[in-house]
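Look over this entry.
=====
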Amino acid sequence: MEKLVGFFKGLWDNFLTFMRDVLLTLFDAITEVFYFLFDMILQFVITVLSGFEELGSFAVGPLLNQLPSESKQMLAAVGFTEAMGMIAAALIIRLIMQLIPFVRLGS
């Protein structure tokens, strides 16, 4: 009788060990999925932010060629194209931030 009880006790211990291992594996899989999604979101953010570099260069370059040379020199001296690029990037960032819930910041 003790052999039978010992067999079932060993079987139960093995079952508990197996279930613990299954739960730990599921936990690891869920955390890996979370890390993967977080990584994908960060890659998307990096891609979007890298697109802002090109945003400042599109500004008004071709339109400035139609201005007189004195006006172009004055605009270059005050940094007009860089300022317009910064304003455009700030507006786009503000619009993107409006899409995030709870980050409306009074606007």
About this structure: The longest helix spans residues 2-55. The chain has a mean pLDDT of 84.
